[in-house]
Amino acid sequence: MRIGAHVDSTDPLAEAAARAADAVQFFLSDPQGWKAPKPREDAERLRAAGVDIYVHAPYVINVATLNNRIRIPSRKLLLGHADAAATVGAKGLIVHGGHVNAGDDLAVGFDNWRKTFAYAAESGGFRVPVLIENTAGGENACARRLDALARLWDAVGEFEVGFCLDTCHAHAGGEELLGLVDRVKAITGRIDLVHANNSKGAFGSGQDRHDNLDGGTIDPDLVVALIRAAGAPVVVETPGGATGQAADIAFLREQLGVEQRPA
Ligand SMILES: [Zn+2]
C-alpha cells in the first residue's frame, strides 16, 4: 500500500522525504492557468526515484462543457499534460470530472468526454493513464453523484479510463463512504487512486474544502475502511504542510498496519 501526498512542485522528492511518503502528486503548471507545462530539469531524477509520481491536471480543464472556448483548449491542455506527465514517469494523470453549464444537456457533456478519449486515441492515446476524479459540488457535474458517474462510464467505458476516488468530494458531494468502493467498482470496475481527505463541509454540502484526517466532518475510520476496500494507492491532499500531511500519512499507516516502502 503506497501512501503519499499532494506537494509543491518545486522539489517533489524533497517533499516526499519530509513526509516519509511513498508517493507524491503535484501540478506541472499553474492549476488555475492555461499555460502548457514546461519541461522539468529533474525529469530523469523523478523517473528514477523510488517514489511513485502522480500528476494533477489544472483545475481549469473542463472537457465536458458545451462551451467550445473552454472545451477545445481543455482537451489540448489535457493531452499536453499527459505528454509531460510521461516524461516524469507518472503513474497517472488526475483530472476532475467537469460539468456542463446550467440549462445545458448533461448527455452532451458525457459525449464530450467520450470524444476527448476518441480524439486522443486517433493520435495514439494518452501517454499516461488518465484518472477521472469525482468532484464535490455543482448540480451539473459529470462525476459528483454515482448516477452521473454511471452515465459517464457508459460514454467512456470503451476506452482505458481510470478512476480516482476522493473521500472529501464523495462525502461533501452527498455519497455515503460506507460501502462506496463496491458501488463505484460496480460502475467503473476499478479504483486506481484514493484521495484520502477529511471534509470541512458537511455531508452533501457540495463544498470542496479538505481537512486533515482527524479533523472535519468524516469519521476517519470510514476513510480507513474505504482505503482498505479499495486496495489502491493513497494520496492525501490535506492542509498543514509537511507536518500536517506527515501526521495524516502516519495515521493511515498505523490504522492500515502498513509500513513505509523501503527506498
Ligand atoms: Zn482530490
TrEMBL record:
InterPro entries: AP_endonuc_2 (IPR001719), AP_endonuc_F2_Zn_BS (IPR018246), Xyl_isomerase-like_sf (IPR036237), Xyl_isomerase-like_TIM-brl (IPR013022). This is Deoxyribonuclease IV. Belongs to the AP endonuclease 2 family. Keywords: DNA damage, DNA repair, Hydrolase, Metal-binding, Zinc. One of its GO terms (molecular function) is deoxyribonuclease IV (phage-T4-induced) activity. It comes from Micromonospora costi. Its EC number is 3.1.21.2. Pfam families: AP_endonuc_2. SMART domains: AP2Ec (SM00518). It is an enzyme of class 3 (hydrolase). One of its GO terms (biological process) is base-excision repair. The keyword Zinc applies. Its cofactor is Zn(2+). Residues 14-254 form the Xylose isomerase-like TIM barrel domain. PANTHER family: APURINIC-APYRIMIDINIC ENDONUCLEASE, ENDONUCLEASE IV ENDODEOXYRIBONUCLEASE IV. The keyword Transcription does not apply. It comes from the Bacteria.
